[in-house]
Every structure is written in C-alpha cells, then in structure tokens.
Amino acid sequence: MAFWNAPIDEEDHAYLACKAALKMIDGISELNQKNVELAAKNKQQNAHMIDVGIGINTGECVVGNMGSETRFDYTALGDTVNIASRLEGQSKPYGVPIVIGENTANLVKERLAFFEIDLIRVIGKNEPIHIYALAGADGLTESDDFIAFKALNASMLSSYRLQDWQSALDALVLIDTLNQKLALPLDDYLFIYQTRIEEFKINSPGQHWDGVYSAVTK
Questions:
Q1: 127 CB-near residues (< 8 Å, 6+ apart)
Q2: What is the spatial distance between Cα 39 and Cα 16, in angstroms, rounded to a whole number?
Q3: Beta strands at 113-121 and 213-214: parallel, antiparallel or unpaired
C-alpha cells in the first residue's frame, strides 16, 4: 500500500497516485517483455509473467504509527483505505489494471483518461459507488478516438441502467470496433456486460431495479 498527503501536505495527491499507478503498469509491461525475451534466449516454452491490479481511492483516513510497543508501522486506516482495497479487487473481473473511485476521478478528470465501468455495491458497504478504469496519462484525454469511446461507453451504461438492452448491446459492438484503434484492455469488461444483458433479457431485474451490481468478491 502507498498513500499521499501525509505526513506532509501534498496538494496534487490524487494525480500523483494515478501517475504512480500508470508508471507501475508500464514497468510491469517492460519486465514481462524482458522475461519473454529471456525465455526465448534460453529456449524455454513459457516465460514467467507478472500481472497486478491497483485500486486508488481518495478521502479522509487515520494516518500515523499503528500497532503495539513491540510492533508498529506508520500506516493509514479507515473506510477510504478499505474501499481502495475493494477497488483493487475489482480490477481482475473487469480486466482493467487500475480501478479508481469517484472522488479520485473528479480530482484528475481534466488531466487523465478514465472511463466509468460500473455502479457497484462492494462487500461490506451498503451505499453503491461509481467505479472507473484509469486508461492513460496526459494526452489520451484529447484523443478523438478516446473521446468517442468515452461517449459510447456512457451511452451504453445509460441504456443498460434504463433496461434498454438492445441499445446497450449495439453500443457494445461499436465500442469493440472502436477499441481496435485504442487497444484498451476491454475484453473482460465487454464480456461482463454482454453476459449480464443476455441474462437480464431472459430474467428481468424488474422495474424498480436501481442499476447497481452487488460485488460477490473482495
């Protein structure tokens, strides 16, 4: 775990956390490429590949030396930290390396590229939260293809929550086509919504459905 804005105030903490996460993913990609090259050099069939998920959340928490006289650590505790952990847990099912919370998204929206992936109720919390995938750093936000993708994705989610299943499915097809240019990790994300929608077409969630998905894993 890493945290910003303590013990010294850091005004740009959300942005710095996101940039650190993006750099971590880039570093892992470079390491995996080196492992592939090393495996080929040693005539090994399989290279040792590393995969990680990252969750980022922004909010108030308790920070300081925690523990006992014999064992303590300078760390952060609280609801904000717990939700960050839950966000990290959602990176695997949605197939995106970095999941950020709504507070973080609002603080970096002018500089970093992200898109909403769901409205979920995480384990241990009753209040649903919007979650987002962090897609890239400065520059991608101004890409015409990413702007078009983000609009399509928002349209898909709106149709999905309004139970307009066919419009949502049509948007998923367009998203998949557009992603051939962007090369975002969307396979699992698109599969989740295709599967849910096909199920809902058979078993309707009902007119009072709030569009919230209740996570079953941490």
A1: 121
A2: 34
A3: parallel
> Which tokens in the block code for residue 216?
């079953």
Per the confidence metrics, is the pTM higher than 0.90? yes
**Residue 93 exposure: Cα atoms within 13 Å on the Cβ side:** 17
Partners of 73 in beta bridges: 66
Residue 194 clears pLDDT 80, i.e. is over it? yes
What DSSP designation does 200 have?
Answer: H
Residue 218 has pLDDT above 80, yes or no: no
The helix/strand count (H/E) of the chain reads as: 6, 7
Between CA 91 and CA 133 the distance in angstroms is 8
Residue 84 Cα distances to 1, 18, 59, angstroms: 10, 13, 10
